[in-house]
């Protein structure tokens, strides 16, 4: 399991340009830099994933914050993790994210967060001098499983100590560990074999035992390495002294395990039972083993197997085996269907797609309304709630998006609990609709409908308004005179 954390985006900055004779020269705050991505990339110099076993936590650099004088922050460098060819990347649940095969193949496993905008980028004709900036977004966090599946044309399979490592060492330049005890090989060994004008790779798959398809003896970790091989070569030990062991029984046990193992369908692997089979009767330098090999060869050929009697120690029968394997590999390559690269399908969002939904939920603390959507969540993360102007800017954005209308449709009222963001890190609001108390008669923030009325009254309208004012003045004077004559204004003295 590999734990990845991409870099955070840098914060934007709120700054005002100042110089001599220009104390308020306008906003000049720069944007924050983007956080670094985490990229898995195939490197031909890498052969194992052992480094990620000892260091499973990887973090990409963060973006730098912006500065005044319109200086944008530096972007965080991408963290490139080299992996060997044949690495399969899956989620914890087993979903295949990528099958990295070939030099340079890569996958962006975690994307860095966007940098926040400075007040220079937020300035507009209506908002000439913003006193706030947007915060940078956090980078993505991901947990992926890396699994290496050997890329080889021929896989040598068989019981432990059957002589597979010895065959690889004499057929190629590989130098695997060889010893006279079981499970000497713990990881597959690859070698390159040349037969005439044909070159192919051969893999020494660690020894299999009964129950390997169920995970016994690390069987699943061994069997996964044969998924990509064109030819399976059964290496049978004809000189074993273990009771109950003979070439036919060993072959039947390994065949049962191969048939029970199901390759991953999403990787395009064909069932192991449909692969080309070759039986290699090894250790023919021992006289008793040679006699046993000659005895069982007719039975194996009757079952349809191609049989080769060899000795890795005495170098007997190796040339014939090499050219036979090369022929099978060549035919398998010719029959292999070339996989066309997957077409990239772009599905743009519909013009009327709001990009969010409002969910009404009943919890132990009462009824809540959850706003789920990429844009509302991103806007909330970018808001500095310690700045009233930034909070007002967020309210404007949510209003233009139609969040308030959807909350009203869902049944929210003043004082309802509204959550925006992921379930584990949501921002909680006590909702107060801006449409209450006649606020719907107002325009957008910073505007006044009274200032937008540019109509001019006619001459008749002006004359009528003048006479109305004169009549109002005359009536007011008459009322004051009546009050004076009635003695309302007489002093008590």
TrEMBL record:
<feature type="binding site">
    <location>
        <begin position="158"/>
        <end position="165"/>
    </location>
    <ligand>
        <name>GTP</name>
    </ligand>
</feature>
<comment type="function">
    <text>An essential GTPase which binds GTP, GDP and possibly (p)ppGpp with moderate affinity, with high nucleotide exchange rates and a fairly low GTP hydrolysis rate. Plays a role in control of the cell cycle, stress response, ribosome biogenesis and in those bacteria that undergo differentiation, in morphogenesis control.</text>
</comment>
<dbReference type="InterPro" id="IPR036726">
    <property type="entry name" value="GTP1_OBG_dom_sf"/>
</dbReference>
<feature type="binding site">
    <location>
        <begin position="282"/>
        <end position="285"/>
    </location>
    <ligand>
        <name>GTP</name>
    </ligand>
</feature>
<dbReference type="GO" id="GO:0005525">
    <property type="term" value="F:GTP binding"/>
</dbReference>
<protein>
    <recommendedName>
        <fullName>GTPase Obg</fullName>
        <ecNumber>3.6.5.-</ecNumber>
    </recommendedName>
</protein>
<feature type="binding site">
    <location>
        <position position="165"/>
    </location>
    <ligand>
        <name>Mg(2+)</name>
    </ligand>
</feature>
<dbReference type="InterPro" id="IPR031167">
    <property type="entry name" value="G_OBG"/>
</dbReference>
<keyword id="KW-0479">Metal-binding</keyword>
<comment type="similarity">
    <text>Belongs to the TRAFAC class OBG-HflX-like GTPase superfamily. OBG GTPase family.</text>
</comment>
<keyword id="KW-0547">Nucleotide-binding</keyword>
<feature type="domain" description="OCT">
    <location>
        <begin position="348"/>
        <end position="433"/>
    </location>
</feature>
<feature type="domain" description="Obg">
    <location>
        <begin position="1"/>
        <end position="151"/>
    </location>
</feature>
<dbReference type="InterPro" id="IPR015349">
    <property type="entry name" value="OCT_dom"/>
</dbReference>
<dbReference type="GO" id="GO:0042254">
    <property type="term" value="P:ribosome biogenesis"/>
</dbReference>
<feature type="binding site">
    <location>
        <begin position="204"/>
        <end position="207"/>
    </location>
    <ligand>
        <name>GTP</name>
    </ligand>
</feature>
<dbReference type="InterPro" id="IPR014100">
    <property type="entry name" value="GTP-bd_Obg/CgtA"/>
</dbReference>
<keyword id="KW-0460">Magnesium</keyword>
<dbReference type="Pfam" id="PF09269">
    <property type="entry name" value="DUF1967"/>
</dbReference>
<dbReference type="InterPro" id="IPR045086">
    <property type="entry name" value="OBG_GTPase"/>
</dbReference>
<keyword id="KW-0342">GTP-binding</keyword>
<keyword id="KW-0963">Cytoplasm</keyword>
<feature type="binding site">
    <location>
        <begin position="183"/>
        <end position="187"/>
    </location>
    <ligand>
        <name>GTP</name>
    </ligand>
</feature>
<dbReference type="InterPro" id="IPR027417">
    <property type="entry name" value="P-loop_NTPase"/>
</dbReference>
<dbReference type="GO" id="GO:0005737">
    <property type="term" value="C:cytoplasm"/>
</dbReference>
<dbReference type="InterPro" id="IPR036346">
    <property type="entry name" value="GTP-bd_prot_GTP1/OBG_C_sf"/>
</dbReference>
<feature type="binding site">
    <location>
        <position position="185"/>
    </location>
    <ligand>
        <name>Mg(2+)</name>
    </ligand>
</feature>
<dbReference type="GO" id="GO:0003924">
    <property type="term" value="F:GTPase activity"/>
</dbReference>
<feature type="domain" description="OBG-type G">
    <location>
        <begin position="152"/>
        <end position="330"/>
    </location>
</feature>
<dbReference type="Pfam" id="PF01926">
    <property type="entry name" value="MMR_HSR1"/>
</dbReference>
<dbReference type="Pfam" id="PF01018">
    <property type="entry name" value="GTP1_OBG"/>
</dbReference>
<feature type="region of interest" description="Disordered">
    <location>
        <begin position="439"/>
        <end position="493"/>
    </location>
</feature>
<feature type="binding site">
    <location>
        <begin position="311"/>
        <end position="313"/>
    </location>
    <ligand>
        <name>GTP</name>
    </ligand>
</feature>
<feature type="compositionally biased region" description="Basic and acidic residues">
    <location>
        <begin position="447"/>
        <end position="486"/>
    </location>
</feature>
<dbReference type="GO" id="GO:0000287">
    <property type="term" value="F:magnesium ion binding"/>
</dbReference>
<dbReference type="InterPro" id="IPR006074">
    <property type="entry name" value="GTP1-OBG_CS"/>
</dbReference>
<dbReference type="InterPro" id="IPR006073">
    <property type="entry name" value="GTP-bd"/>
</dbReference>
<dbReference type="InterPro" id="IPR006169">
    <property type="entry name" value="GTP1_OBG_dom"/>
</dbReference>
<feature type="region of interest" description="Disordered">
    <location>
        <begin position="51"/>
        <end position="79"/>
    </location>
</feature>
<comment type="subunit">
    <text>Monomer.</text>
</comment>
<keyword id="KW-0378">Hydrolase</keyword>
């Amino acid at each position: 399991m590999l734990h990845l954390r991409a870099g955070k985006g840098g914060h934007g900055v709120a700054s005002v340009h100042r110089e001599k004779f220009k104390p308020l020269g306008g906003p000049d705050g720069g944007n924050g830099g983007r956080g670094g991505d985490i990229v898995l990339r195939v490197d031909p110099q890498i052969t194992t994933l052992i480094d990620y076993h000892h260091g499973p936590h990887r973090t990409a650099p963060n973006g730098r914050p912006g500065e005044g004088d319109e200086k944008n922050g530096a972007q965080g460098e991408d963290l490139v993790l080299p992996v060997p060819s044949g690495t399969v990347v899956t989620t914890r649940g087993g979903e295949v994210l990528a099958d990295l095969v070939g030099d340079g193949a890569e996958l962006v496993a975690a994307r860095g967060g966007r940098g926040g905008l400075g007040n220079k980028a937020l300035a507009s004709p209506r908002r000439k001098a913003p006193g706030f900036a947007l915060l940078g977004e956090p980078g993505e966090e991901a947990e992926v499983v890396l699994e290496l599946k050997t890329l080889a044309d021929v896989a040598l399979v068989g019981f432990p100590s059957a002589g597979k490592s010895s065959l690889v060492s004499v057929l190629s330049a590989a130098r695997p560990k060889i010893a006279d005890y079981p499970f000497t090989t713990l990881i597959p060994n690859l070698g390159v074999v040349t037969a005439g004008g044909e070159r192919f790779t051969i893999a020494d798959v660690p020894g299999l035992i009964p129950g390997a398809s169920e995970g016994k003896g690390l069987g699943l970790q061994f069997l996964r390495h044969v998924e990509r091989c064109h030819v399976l070569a059964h290496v049978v030990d004809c000189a074993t002294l273990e009771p109950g062991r003979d070439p036919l029984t060993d072959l039947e046990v390994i065949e049962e395990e191969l048939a029970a193992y199901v390759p991953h369908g999403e990787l395009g692997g064909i069932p192991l039972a449909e692969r080309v089979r070759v039986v290699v009767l090894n250790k023919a330098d021992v006289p008793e083993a040679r006699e046993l090999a000659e005895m069982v060869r007719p039975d194996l050929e009757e079952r349809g197997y191609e049989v080769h009697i060899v000795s890795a120690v005495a170098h007997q029968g190796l040339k014939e085996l090499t050219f036979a394997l090369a022929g099978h590999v060549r035919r398998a390559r010719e029959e292999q269907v070339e996989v066309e690269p997957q077409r990239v399908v772009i599905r743009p969002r519909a013009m009327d797609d709001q990009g969010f939904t409002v969910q009404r939920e009943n919890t132990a603390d009462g009824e809540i309304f959850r706003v789920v959507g990429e844009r509302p969540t991103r806007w909330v993360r970018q808001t500095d709630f310690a700045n009233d102007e930034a909070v007002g800017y967020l309210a404007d954005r949510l209003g233009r998006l139609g969040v308030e209308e959807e909350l009203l449709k869902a049944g929210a009222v003043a004082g309802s609990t509204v959550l925006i963001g992921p379930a584990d890190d949501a921002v909680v609001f006590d909702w107060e609709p801006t449409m209450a108390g006649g606020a719907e008669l107002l325009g957008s923030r910073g505007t006044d409908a009274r200032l937008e009325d540019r109509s001019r009254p006619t001459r008749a309208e002006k004359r009528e308004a003048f006479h109305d004012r004169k009549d109002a003045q005359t009536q007011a004077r008459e009322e004051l005179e009546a009050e004076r004559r009635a003695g309302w204004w007489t002093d008590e003295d």
